[in-house]
Amino acid sequence: MVVTQTISPSVPSEPEVPSPAPAVAPPPGRQIQPTTARGIGIGLILLGVFLLGFLGYLYGLSAIEEARAQSTSYATLRGQLAQQVAPLGATTPGAAVAILTIPAIGIRNMIVVEGTSPENLELGPGHVPSARRSAG
User: Fold this and answer.
1) What is the pTM of this model?
2) 69: exposed, middle or buried (C-beta count within 10 Å: 0-12, 13-18, 19+)?
3) How confident is the prediction along the chain (136 residues), in pLDDT tens digits per residue?
4) What are the helix and strand counts (H, E) for the chain?
5) 52's torsion region: left (phi>0), alpha (psi -120 to 50) or beta?
């Protein structure tokens, strides 16, 4: 028995390329598009920035504005009281009418303004014009 083997030159074979996977159909129902998700994300970021700005104003800048208004009103009313020209009767809304001190809760020399409109209350606590003023 004779066995013969033939050797032929080897030819490099091309690598096998996997065939692309068949496209899977999206499940039925509602899907969020990438542009919609990005828009929602940007909207939420802007809302967060707005809320942080509002809180910064509420706890920082509004206190500074109120302190400035109190300081100015206090100096004006003290000057009027020293000259004995402070208002005793009806006065214009927003004008200083009294100095309030309540040591039990830490309020000292706070100016009370005439009127209760939002503009007046930005200056300090308001006095209702129809209420009687106490002399003490």
Assistant:
1) 0.51
2) middle
3) 666 666 666 656 666 666 676 666 666 666 767 788 899 999 999 999 999 999 888 887 777 888 888 888 888 888 888 888 777 766 788 888 888 899 999 888 888 888 888 888 888 888 887 776 665 5
4) 3, 3
5) alpha
